[in-house]
Amino acid sequence: MGDREGAGTMPDGVDLGALFLETKIQETLDELDAELVGLRPVKTRIREIAALLLVDRARAQLDLAGGNPSLHMSFTGNPGTGKTTVAMRMAELLAKLGYVRQGQLVAVTRDDLVGQYIGHTAPKTKEVLKRAMGGVLFIDEAYYLFKPENERDYGAESIEILLQVMENQRNDLVVILAGYKDRMDTFFASNPGMSSRIAHHIDFPDYSLDELVAIGKLMLAAQQYRLSDEAEEVFRRYLELRMTQPNFANARSVRNALDRTRLRQANRLFERRSARVTRVDLMTIEPPDILASRVFEADSQGNDREQGG
Predict the structure, then answer these.
(1) Residues forming beta bridges with residue 178, ordered by sequence position
(2) How far apart (Å, rounded) are the C-alpha atoms in residues 129 and 7?
(3) N or C: which end of the chain has fewer CB within 10 A?
(4) H or E segment at 87?
(5) Which one, of 212, 264, 203, 219, lies nearest residue 236 by Cα?
(6) Structure confidence by residue, pLDDT tens digits, 126-169
(7) Whether residue 199 has pLDDT greater than 80
(8) 139: exposed, middle or buried (C-beta count within 10 Å: 0-12, 13-18, 19+)?
């Protein structure tokens, strides 16, 4: 009886709520919700991963067997759908949950990893890995690492180094490969070793029109701007048109459009500089600030052609 109650007795449970509060992961999850409109399936998967790691910490406290799960990931989707932002928050979560030491995000492309001549690729790749160790390495447009049509390409050397580190040091580095879904599928089909090391495939859908309008309003609010009621209707029409044009990049295109809109608003106010401007004037985007976009000009020309004029 005394032996069972001795100092070495294993606790019979763990307070998950206290552990949750201790890690402070709710702050990061809240930031993710605040930063990104929509993306419900993506946010759900991130929460599931956070829950898995939290439970793993509880299991470790009760001396239950198990090792760190592999968390290398693939983020697929069109530009501007929030992949980099989610990767940054994922790095924070992994650090708070003790999966990695530091939680920094190192974002790179092929040019950061692959050299131009023999002996150049290995040092470049290893230097990037050194900077990323203890956090997350985010490789955008990862399919460009593999160029089967070019026998002299050095991307395969970088992939080989990445594979070794992803397997042997997965407890201190998470690699996220990102890009268009169809191209990433082809990349994984051509690189089964890389495919086998990816534990989570997360697809980022395009934003709906309502979500894009909400994103734009959030971006403006962050800089203490607002759309007038009339301007909001014009902005919605702008997005409807822009979404049908080439090179539309979701939230990225919204941000670029609003940057140009702020320039037009500033010019409009400057032209009436003989009059006083109020705080509301300085904050408010009006329809002319958006209607001056070439998107409306292109739409007008298209309609004229359709009507034979």
Answers:
(1) 75, 140
(2) 43
(3) N
(4) helix 83-96
(5) 212
(6) 999 999 999 999 999 999 998 877 767 888 899 999 999 999 98
(7) yes
(8) buried
Residue 176: which H helix or E strand, with range?
strand 174-179
CB 173 within 8 A of CB 132: yes
Taking the mean position of all CA atoms in its chain, how far away is CA 220? 20
- Cα four-point dihedral sign 185, 186, 192, 193: negative
3-state secondary structure of 229: helix
CB 207 within 8 A of CB 250: yes
What residues are paired with 74 via a beta bridge?
177, 201
- Report the run of H or E that residue 134 belongs to, with start and end: none
For 77, the 3-state DSSP assignment is strand
Confidence (pTM): 0.84
In whole angstroms, give the CA distance from residue 296 to residue 246: 15
Q: Provide the token pair at 189.
A: 């089909």
- pLDDT at 86 (0 to 100): 95
* Percent share of the chain, pLDDT over 90: 70
